Amino acid sequence: MRHPVLSLVVLVAAAGLLILPLTAHHEITAKFDPAKTSTLRGIVTYVDWSNPHVHIFMNVGTGNNQVNWAVELESVVDLQKAGYKRDTVKPGDAISVEGITARDNSRQIWGNTVTLTAGNRRVFNVPEEPATPKTAGAPTPRWPDGKPRLGPVTGTTGYWAKPSASILVQSGTTVRANKNGLLANIADVDKVAPFQPWARDLFALRQRNRLADDPQYLYCLPPGGPRQFQGAMGVQFIEDKEHQRIFVFVGSVDRNWRLIYLDGRQQVGQVRGDADNPLYYGRSVGKWEGDALVVDTKGFNEKFWFSNGGLPHTDKLHLIEKFTRTDTNTLKYEVTIDDPGAYTRSWTSGWDMQWVANEELPVFFCQDNRP
Amino acid sequence: MTQRALVAFILALALVTGVFGQNLGTGTGGGQRGTTAAAATPAVPAKPTPRWPNGKPLLGTSPGEVSLWLPAGGGGERFINADSAVPVPDKLRESEVPMQPWARALFAYRLENQLEPHTRCRPSGGPRQFLTPYGVEILEMPSSQTIFIMDLGGPHTYRAIYMDGRPHPADLVPSYYGHSIGRWEGDTLVIDSVGFNEKFWIDRQGTPHTDRLHMIEKLTRTDYNTIKYEVTIDDVGAYTKTWTSGFNLRWVANSELFEYVCQDNNYAPELMVGTQESVDRTSKIVP
Prior knowledge:
- Chain A is mainly beta.
- Chain A has helices at about 5-10, 75-80, 190, 195-210, 215-220; strands at about 30-50, 55-60, 65-70, 95-100, 110-115, 120-125, 160, 235-240, 245-250, 255-260, 285-290, 290-300, 320-325, 330-340, 345-355.
- The model of chain B is unreliable at about 1-40 and about 275-285 (pLDDT under 50).
């Protein structure tokens, strides 16, 4: 410890007492070391109330030995849902923070608990959302032409969230992973998908690095492919019947939109015929097969991770996605992955999403607290 | 390399590589990748304003049509007229804008130091979202009580304008686009917005604003090819009274939305995710 006073203040908790955060938007153990637990006490100097993660800055120590620490917390969206506001903690407040500190020994801590000294009141506590029991919803809402409506009925609001899986894993396999797609057991790598050797090794490397190289978090690059349906912020479908196209509004990362054309066009010419310009969201064409929207997408670039957890893909990636609103509350997502550049055969995966009624898609920008 | 030198270097690099191409206001910046914006304006008189069956003007793309709205001046037009420039009707000169002293000083600084957050892929609220050479599509569907402005020239995002009569929420988290509610006054869409953050510029020059900004925008499609865009800036944090500016949007046929992602190939990632004075974020993993 470089600061003698600090060492008095930082109470290193017993090794092995690992308190892991539950709901962070990205893999915080890449930055913070779960083994380095600490408790800090000090005075708040600034509150950066912005996404993706709120930061509280606090002075720790006294006199000339004060140092400023950054306390990282959940997103504005999550903290607000839990009832907290940007003035819940204010500059000048005395707080204590229990958490885990940065691997690089910079003065940053992930706040597992924050307590206002006055009144000994615990704040910024985001409880793990209880698993919602699956209830049979009302029948699937439909357009006048009989097709299912993927978005909200006129006059109502709502969006899709809470995916039942957090990583793309081939159907019929069970693999434990956290919300960010970090495997509970690295030995499960081979079970995840029919990888080619290089892809398997790259996937394992990304996992061993605790997803630290994720372009979505490093540079707020778009979550193309199945990953847009794995995000914590959910998605919305806007069906533009007049122009035979569907917008997917992606709640996570940078509030992007993806276009699915149902007007019979080919997967070329969507960017003025520039076939050499592969895309994050690819070129998507869709059609209805009974009650399922079937979307065929090609033309991806290789600059993003197409699933939580860092499964590799190449520009040969070809996806067939099937969306079925089985009742008001349930969207069934099925995907066939065909990428002869990274996998030995085509394979399938899928999960359900739940309807979040009476709410708009949260306003979340990955860039928000960047300088 | 000092931080200042680094920033200067990145800026120079970015200018050379065209990251800031959108800021140059050439009017054809989007032409090569996405639009035919440079097509000559037809000499024939414009068709009348298209309308919905209920008589309201249609701001979006007519059924069966493909189109975008681009700034009529190519995006380089000024929101505030320079004192030295030729007077422009309905547009204030710089010295006439009722800026508070700090705002005037900041504006002067920004005119000299054009490191706009837009170039670091921040969404741009207010007039700025209409002032990119890629333009916008106004998404207006009979089945939806929300009008979306698809902001093509930013980080691939959009703005929502609620038309269902809801009020502004009481406790808004400041955001780039603010909270917008719209209504029709005759043939004009009137949008009332509050709840802005201070992390973007409302125009290209750097006209200051604070989180107390209240903006009233009026969009009138005066003929098939034109939307008159007017905005009243009501911000007691930065101005001594309200003031108004605007510009025209130009309808561009046979152009449609495409995937432009600001972060893609942006040569200033350090500025997007890197250092901040108050905390060591030199680690690759950023918050």
